[in-house]
Amino acid sequence: MSIPIHVDAYSGYRLNERPQGFELDDVYYRIYAVEDQWYSPGAQFFKVRADGKRFILRYDQEHHEWTLQSAYDGAELFARCDVQVITVDPAVVRTAEKLIESCEQCHPEDAEWPFAWVLDQVTGHGGDRTDYLMTEPARCPNCRREVTEHMLVERRPQEE
Questions:
Q1: Burial of 145 by CB count in 10 Å (0-12 exposed, 13-18 middle, 19+ buried)?
Q2: Could you say which DSSP state residue 77 is in?
């Protein structure tokens, strides 16, 4: 499971070169050490020590999004009682894809709804404290790029 977070990062010759701190649920965690760092296609991972705990942070280079991937010494962060985590299976992902026309990557001028709102419609859940965990990625029906729950999409016109 990953949790979207706001990260303050040092940008030297490259954007978001090294995380310096992050905020989660109105708590700021100052990063004291980057213990390890590695790359995967399109992402950069950092194993960090912050406020006496170890965390793995992921930076999605294409979408400029940070997520908390795991917390070695801080599992309580993933047991957030005020957040409802909804697992979305492939059938629900396909249903949600049918409700979108395009995404912010192929039609940025038309994309104005977060994909999470489309998932809200399909699952019947929703609200500010709902996170979706998709078991496989959603794809834009127009450009076939991956769509995350926080990306903006253009909704398909409703049939009367």
A1: middle
A2: G
